[in-house]
Amino acid sequence: MRVLKLIFLFIFAFQSNAQISDFDYIDFQKADSIALVCKNEKLNNLPELAYKLTSTLTTDVERFRSIYMWVCGNIANDYVMYSKNMRKRQRFKKDSVKLNEWNNHFRKVVFKKMLDDNKTICTGYAYLVKELSKLANIDCEIVDGYAKLSTTNIEKLDIPNHSWNAVKLNGKWYLCDPTWASGIPNEATLQFKFQYNDGFFLTDPNLFAINHFPEDEKWLLINNVDHSFETFIEAPIIYGKAYANYSIPNEPKKMHNTVEKNESVVFKYQLLKPIESKDISLLIDNGKNSRKIQPNKTSIKGKSLTVEYKFERNGFYDVHLLIGSDLITTYTFKVKSSIP
Question: Maximum CA pair distance of the chain?
């Protein structure tokens, strides 16, 4: 049995490079324009919607793109509904009967809200992408698991809180997150702003795994089959612009770090888009004030970015790396004097 499991993991790990760059030869303009033309189509006839979105496209990846773009551009994220669901699931997490009753009830609420108002939560996004893909004869699965944002309370991340999709194209599985791609819910005003982020479409699994962890680990789709939940929890915070810039943070591995005063701290990233050294800056906050500075050293070699910085004073610091005005990652550092 263990041998079969290892073989299964190897098959998925072997596909780890499945990402958007596999389709550099595809022009998605037609697929995107079809999704735009179909804007405001209703959800009461999914077969008809799937046909309108895909019938004139010739490849599965274009058909999936049209479906994905339509969902991201027409379905709003309902933060109030999401918050209520998470409160109930936390309350019932130790009572399987009540949890199951709530899940069954809430599932009906989610789909009615989506059908009536074009509003939903991650489960609805993932379901709709899957169903429309199925109608277009594209293999697509819902992936349930854990996800981290800058506002996520890691201490309470003990039950699955997010859903996304895996889609099979040209014999390989790819990952995407239509919920996060669609826009940004404002937790303060409870309003949703459509703001498409293409970085969540067929994302590099190595980047995706930094703030997504599936319940079924086969959907990690990365080489390192030892990538654990602990690794996911300890990883730095990354933002939507990291996906847009395709910036994969390689070092430091953890969000919380301890260093010595005047020790050189090294940040390493993998890039897709070319950038210039002058675009790189650090925003450092010591709890009383923040200042934006240029790193002590910045090196760009091909797709590799290396940034170095030395803390000259003891203390606790939040460190944010920016590319231009885009916030990419956040770390914390405890800086202490060296031991004589």
Answer: 73
CA distances from 168 to 31, 138, 202 (A): 18, 7, 10
What is the rounded CA–CA span in Å between residue 57 and residue 178? 21
Tokens of 136: 């277009």
Give the Cβ contact number of residue 283 at 10 Å. 15
pLDDT at 16 over 60: no
Residue 265 has pLDDT above 70, yes or no: yes
Give Cα 294 to chain centroid, integer Å: 28
Task: State the burial class of residue 46 (Cβ atoms within 10 Å of its Cβ: 0-12, 13-18, 19+).
Answer: middle
The secondary structure of 116-148, three-state, reads HHCEECHHHHHHHHHHHHHHCCCCEEEEEEEEC
17 pLDDT exceeds 70?
no
Poorest-confidence range of 97-111, 190-204, 270-284, 288-302? 97-111
* CA 231 – CA 51 distance, rounded (Å): 42
35 DSSP assignment? H
**Dihedral sign computed on CA atoms, order 279, 280, 281, 282:** positive
Q: How many residues does the chain have?
A: 340
* Dist. CA 89–CA 85, nearest whole Å: 6
Which token pair is 55? 């019938």
Contact 57, 30 (CB under 8 A): yes
CB 131 within 8 A of CB 171: no
* CA-angle at 18, arms to 17 and 23, nearest 5°: 120
